[in-house]
């Protein structure tokens, strides 16, 4: 028995397949699903989703959204979800530096919050990319 998982965004279906295990973070902490888990709906944090499928470890950078689990299907609806191979690591690193520069000089609370949120998303991209490349080389 396995989980039937779909990850969708407003723009595309990012991944669909069978999984033995799924882990993710909510605003209240980390959770994991095994097959035949009780139904649940949960909000997703901006963090990594890890899927174990056919002996492979898949990582996705997920930028918020929701997860719905029924006995038949697990649906992840995210604002954005990126596979490591789709991440432009150099662009993400440049954007982190830019956000850090903005945070050093910006006094407006809203602009600081926006820059901090952007920086967190780019740091997540970097983390997912690096975890994936380290796993590939083992």
TrEMBL record:
RNA-binding recorded as keyword: no
InterPro entries, per the entry: ATP_synth_F1_dsu/esu (IPR001469), ATP_synth_F1_dsu/esu_N (IPR020546), ATPsynth_dsu/esu_N (IPR036771)
Keyword list, A-Z: ATP synthesis, Cell inner membrane, Cell membrane, CF(1), Coiled coil, Hydrogen ion transport, Ion transport, Membrane, Transport
UniProt topology in membrane: Peripheral membrane protein
UniProt main location, coarse: membrane
Top-rank lineage group of the source organism: Bacteria
GO molecular function, one term: proton-transporting ATP synthase activity, rotational mechanism
Domain (ATP synthase F1 complex delta/epsilon subunit N-terminal): residue spans on this chain: 3-81
Pfam families: ATP-synt_DE_N (PF02823)
Gene Ontology cellular component annotations, sorted alphabetically: endomembrane system; plasma membrane; proton-transporting ATP synthase complex
UniProt similarity note: Belongs to the ATPase epsilon chain family.
Assembly: F-type ATPases have 2 components, CF(1) - the catalytic core - and CF(0) - the membrane proton channel. CF(1) has five subunits: alpha(3), beta(3), gamma(1), delta(1), epsilon(1). CF(0) has three main subunits: a, b and c.
Protein name: ATP synthase epsilon chain
Organism expressing this protein natively: Kosmotoga olearia (strain ATCC BAA-1733 / DSM 21960 / TBF 19.5.1)
């Amino acid at each position: 028995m396995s989980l039937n998982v779909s990850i969708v965004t407003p723009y595309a279906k990012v991944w669909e397949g069978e999984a033995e295990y799924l882990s993710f973070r909510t605003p209240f902490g980390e959770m994991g699903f095994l097959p035949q888990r009780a139904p649940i709906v949960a909000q997703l944090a901006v963090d990594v989703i890890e899927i174990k499928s056919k002996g492979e470890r898949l990582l996705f950078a997920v930028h918020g959204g929701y997860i719905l689990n029924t006995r038949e299907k697990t649906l992840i609806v995210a604002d954005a979800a990126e596979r490591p191979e789709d991440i432009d690591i150099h662009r993400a690193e440049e954007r982190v530096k830019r956000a850090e520069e903005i945070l050093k000089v910006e006094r407006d609370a809203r602009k600081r919050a926006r820059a901090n949120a952007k920086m967190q998303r780019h740091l997540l991209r970097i983390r997912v990319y690096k975890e994936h490349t380290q796993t590939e080389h083992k």
